[in-house]
Amino acid sequence: MEQIIQVAVLGIGLGGVFALMGAGLSLVFGVMRIVNLAHPSLIIGGAYLAYWGFRIYGIDPLIMLPVCALVLAATGVLFYKVFFERDAKSATYSEMTVLLTFAIAMIVEGALGAAFSNTQRVTSPSYATDAFFIGNVFIPKGQLYAGITSIVIIGLLAAFLKFSRLGYAIRATTQNREAAALLGVNVNMVGLMSFAIGIGLAGAAGALTSFVFSFFPAKHWEWVAVLMSLVVMGGMGSILGTVVAAFSLSIVAAFVGTWIGSTWSTMTFFLALFLVLLFRPQGLFGEKPELV
Amino acid sequence: MSDFLTIKGITAGYGDGPAILDDAKMTVQEGKVHCIIGPNGAGKSTMMKAIAGMLPLRKGEITFKGENIAGLRPDQMLRRGIAFVPQERALFPKMTVRENLRMGGYILNDDKALSSRIDEIFDRFPILRERADQHAGTMSGGQQQTLAMARTLILRPDVVMFDEPSLGLAPKIVREMFQIVRLIADTGVTVLLVEQNAVMGLRHADWGVVLDLGRTLFEGPSAEVLADPRIQELYLGGQKVA
Predict the structure, then answer these.
(1) Does A184 sit within 8 Å of B75, measured CB to CB?
(2) What are the backbone angles phi and psi of residue A235, rounded to the nearest 5°?
(3) Which residue ranges does the record assign to the ABC transporter domain (chain B) (predicted)?
C-alpha cells in the first residue's frame, strides 16, 4: 500500500510539470493551428535561463519563473511576427508549421549547444535534493514544489480563459475563428497573444524543469513525442484534455516504471496514444470530426 | 430609394473566380422582413455575404444612413448596426449559451450593460434562460438557431441578416424560426434573409427579392411575388410550386 501511494505521489509531481508543458502547446495549436515542435526546445531555453540565474546570481528558480515566462513570451512574439504571421491564411498552414517548427527546434538546440555546451545541467536549489517523509512515503521537495506551482499556473490559466475578455476571445477563436471575427474579435491579435502566452508557459515550465530533470540542449527530443501524444490524447486544442492526459498518464507511467521496468515507462504514453487513436480518434475531450 | 439602406449594382465572386453576383440590387424598407429567394446557385448567400462584408465587392453601392459602407469588414458593419448570421450559425459550441451571448456583445466592452442586455434577451427568449449554462453545441438545431438569432440582438442592431435560418430544421421548428423573425421585425429591426424554400420564405416576409444567375430578376411585396407566374417558371419550368 505504501509503495502504491509512493509511486502515485511521484507520478502526480511529474504529471503537473508535463501538464504545464502540454498546456502551452495545446493553447497554441487550438488557436493558431500551429503544431509547435519547437515547444520543448523553448522549454529547454527557459531551463537554461533559470539555471544561469541561479548559478550566477543565486536566484531561486521559482523566483526566476516569471522572468523565464516573460522572456520566452517576448521570444514568442518575435517568432510569431517573423515566422508565423504572414502565412496564417494558407490552407496548408498546419502542415507548414510542422516543418517550420522542426527547423526552429534544431536551430534553438544548436544555439543553446553553442552557447552553453552539451553538458548535462541541473539547477540545484537546496530543496531540489531534499525530501519530506509522511510515514514511510518519500516526497521529494523539488517535485512537490514543481507540481504545486504547475497546478497553480494551470489554474490561473483556466481562470484567465474562463473570465477575462481576452480569454473569451481566445476560446471563441479556438472554437470558431470566422464567427469570432464576425463578432468583432481581432483574430490576428488573439493569435499573437495566445502564441505569446503559450511560449510564456514553456518558459515557466522550463524554470520548473531545470531543477526536476537534468537537461542539455538535445533533451527536448525526449519530450516532443511525449507532449505531442498528450495533446493528441487530450483532443487537439483542448487544454483540459491535455492536463487530464498528463496527470493520468504520468501516474500510470510511474507505476509501469516501478513494476515493469523504467525502460517501459515512456512507452506508456505511446501505448495510450495508440489506444486512443484506435478507439477515440478525436481524443478524450475533442470534437468528433465531421465527415465532410 | 430611401436613404436607410441602399443596395445596388452589386458584383462579387470568390477569389479570382467568375462573378457569382452580377449587378444585383434590392430595395430595403426600414422595419420590414425581406426575403431573398431564387433557385440553387442564383447567388442568394453570396449576396448576403457581399452585403455583410464577408466578400469583397467588385462593383456596387451599399449605403447605410447616408454613409457608403461598401467594402467595410463585418465587424465594422456590426459597429454601424448591421449584424449577420451566416449559414453555419456561427456559434461557439463549447461555450455556454450565456457565454455565446456575451461574445455577441464583445465590441460593447462594458460588462454591466452586457449583463443587463443578456437579461433582456432571456426575457424575450425564455428557452435560452433555461439553457443559460448549457454548452451551445449540445442544444437542438432549433435552439441553436434561436441562440444565433438572439445573439445578434445584443448589440441592438438596425439591420439583421440571416442566411437560411431554416437550414436543416424540421418544418415545425422552421415555423417557430419565422415567428422569431417576425418578433424581431416587430421591434423595428429590419430583417434581410435568404430562404431556399421560396413559398415558405415569402409567406413570412413583407418583401420578396428574386435572384437568378446572379441578377435581381424582380422584387416586390411578397404576396405579389408569390403570385407572379415568373416564379413558377423559374423554379420548376412551369410546374406548380408547392
Answers:
(1) yes
(2) 105, 110
(3) 5-238
List chain B residues with CB under 8 Å of A176.
90-93
Task: Calculate how close chain B gets to A181, using CA atoms only, in Å.
Answer: 7
Identify any residues that bridge with A133 across adjacent strands, giving them in sequence order.
A138
Instruction: Print pLDDT tens along chain A (292 aa).
Output: 788 888 888 888 889 999 999 999 999 999 988 999 999 999 999 999 999 999 999 999 999 999 999 999 999 999 999 999 887 778 888 889 999 999 999 999 999 999 999 999 999 998 988 888 888 888 899 999 999 999 999 999 999 999 999 999 999 999 999 899 999 999 999 999 999 999 999 999 999 999 999 999 999 999 999 999 999 999 888 899 999 999 999 999 999 998 998 888 888 999 999 999 899 888 888 766 544 3
- Identify the architecture of domain B1-81+157-165+173-242 in CATH: 3-Layer(aba) Sandwich (3.40)
**Chain centroid, CA A139 distance in Å:** 23
Query: Is residue B75 within 8 Å of residue A182, measured between CB atoms?
Result: yes
Q: What is the ipTM of this complex?
A: 0.87
What is the least distance, in Å, from the CA of A49 to any CA of chain B? 37
**Which candidate from B103, B107, B109 shows the least CB-CB separation from A172?**
B103
Q: What is the 3-state secondary structure (H, E, C) of chain A?
A: CHHHHHHHHHHHHHHHHHHHHHHHHHHHHHHHCCCCCCHHHHHHHHHHHHHHHHHHHCCCHHHHHHHHHHHHHHHHHHHHHHHHCCCCCCCCHHHHHHHHHHHHHHHHHHHHHHHHCCCCECCCCHHHHCEEEECCEEEEHHHHHHHHHHHHHHHHHHHHHHHCHHHHHHHHHHHCHHHHHHCCCCHHHHHHHHHHHHHHHHHHHHHHHHHHCCECHHHHHHHHHHHHHHHHHHCCCCHHHHHHHHHHHHHHHHHHHHHCCHHHCCHHHHHHHHHHHHHCCCCCCCCCCCCC
Among chain A, residues having any CB pair with chain B shorter than 8 Å are 165, 168-169, 171-172, 175-176, 178-185, 287
Q: What is the pLDDT of residue B1?
A: 47
* Domain segments of chain B as ranges: 1-81+157-165+173-242, 88-156
- In tens, the pLDDT along B141-157 reads 999 999 999 999 999 99
pLDDT (tens digit, 9 = 90+) per residue, A138-174? 889 999 999 999 999 999 999 999 999 999 999 999 9
Contacts of B86 in chain A (CB under 8 A): 178-179, 182
Q: How far is CA A115 from CA A110, A203, A216, A276, B103, in A?
A: 9, 18, 12, 40, 47
The verdict on a CB contact (< 8 Å) between B92 and A171 is yes
Of all residues in chain A, the one with the smallest CA distance to B90 is A179
In this structure, the number of other CB atoms found within 10 A of the CB of residue B213 comes to: 13
Distance from CA of A145 to the nearest CA of B (A): 33
